[in-house]
Amino acid sequence: MLTQFYEGETKKFQVNITYNGQAPDITNDTVRLLIKEKKEDTDANAKINKTADVATNGVNGQALFTLTDEETKLTPGIYFYEITWALASGEFYVLESGNVRILDRITDV
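RE: above sequence
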């Protein structure tokens, strides 16, 4: 579960998908992360709208996210997030949703 990260840092994490106890091949699917200030914000106005890398390890059900330091330059505070899985067949699932805290840094780097 995505809980917190520092503003302006590179954030890498993976989401492991299981379906009926098995890791499905997700290489033809789309796994997406949205981070919004308000739940009612449109997807187009999301602070972060990122598609995961499913080519590298998708055959094992792993979606890899890399958020750049530019993408994470958000005002520190609490945001809403959702990770979704859209299958090539048209099925759609919400894998995670909740709050994520963006932490303030003390370095200038």
